[in-house]
Amino acid sequence: MSARTWWWVRLLVGAAVLVLLVARLGTGPFVDGVRALDGWAIGAAFAVTVATTVCGAWRWRLVAGGLGLDLPLGTAVAASYRAQLLNSTLPGGVLGDVHRGVRHGREVRATGRALRAVAWERVAGQVTQAALAVAVLLVLPSPVRSSMPGVVLVAVAAAVTGLLVVRIAVPVLRADLRALAAHGSLPGVVVLSGLAVVGHLGVFWVAARTAGVPVSPDRLLPLALLVLLAMAVPANVAGWGPREGVAAWAFAAAGLGASAGVATAVAYGVLVLVASLPGVAVLVVEALHRRTPDRPAEEPVVDLEAARG
């Protein structure tokens, strides 16, 4: 399957999930999720996202530094906001991350390493999120609690297999892991990844509260983690699709109703989009910078009379 075909398949799968939800539940939950948003919710999500974005940018900086690439924190924060905006508005949900990797690579003249730094940074975030989700889902009641022992075995087997493949078959990735370990970046990456997950959960709680879902935080936590895991599925329309589908199923299985799950997921998606709007400012500044030509250096003034004398 070609890359273009795979891109269309992922897009169509995400769209199919949304169409199915509308066919089963109507447009009401989608409208309710948007209509419920207010100034408090937007302000809270914006503030939490600032902290989360800084954590993600700092994590990226640590990974890039471990691979021998310079990345100032301010540059990383701006690029992360730009990536969030692109991920939230373009099909696939990952084009923003690809863009920041390519752009950083051109700046440091090491596109391959820069793209791998972004990939490792994203993998670190997803692995940390998955580990926290497994721990919570093993302890707290959820629709998948009875299946968790099997899930853990499969996850461990997949992790071991992945590490063996990297260790044996992919020398470049093996060298990356050694460089990160030698640099001492891994503890900081794990801590920052954990803080970022907490930030995402905070925004989801704001979305559920705004949507009027009557659920306690300890009951919402496993449902939120399931939805966040679904967001990692690369078959979506700018982040939409699997998130709403899993939210509908999880909330219905928890006795809260599929409509409440969709409304919460929609509210979350809109809050994420609004909180990424500083990325617009980054794009505007970059566009203005490209349009402004560099001023040529002034030629030295030569006193001809003095030179002749």
End-to-end gap: 78 Å
Query: How does the overall form come out from the CA principal axes?
Result: globular
Contiguous helical run count: 14
Task: Outline the low-pLDDT stretches.
Answer: 296-309
Strand content: under 5%
Q: Residue share in helices?
A: over 70%
From the alpha carbons, calculate the radius of gyration and give it in angstroms: 23 Å
Q: Report the oligomer.
A: single chain
The main pleated sheet reads as: none
Please tell me the overall pLDDT. Answer: 88
Which secondary-structure class do the elements indicate?
A: mainly alpha
For the record, the count of structural domains works out to 1
N-to-C series of helices and strands? HHHHHHHHHHHHHH
Let me know the number of strands: 0
Describe the structure.
The protein has helices at 3-25, 28-35, 39-66, 73-89, 95-108, 111-139, 148-169, 171-183, 186-210, 217-230, 242-253, 258-275, 278-291, 304-308. It is mainly α and 309 residues long. It has one domain. The longest helix is centred in the middle third of the chain and has 29 residues, at 111-139. The chain is globular. Residues 296-309 have low confidence and may be disordered.
